[in-house]
Amino acid sequence: MPSILVTGASRGIGHATSLALGRAGHRVFATMRDPAGTPELAEAAERESLPVVVSRMDVDSDDSVRTAVGRIIAEHGLPDVLVNNAGIVRRGSIEETPLDDFRAAMETNYFGAIRCTQAVLPGMRARRSGVIINVSSVAGRVANPPMGPYAASKFALEGLSEALAQEVKPFGIRVVLVEPGIIDTAMARSVTRPSDTTIYPHSRAMADIFTAALSVPVAPELVAETIRKIIEGDSWQFRYLVGPDAAPLIAWRASLTDEEFIAGDR
Question: The whole model's pTM is what?
Answer without folding.
Answer: 0.97
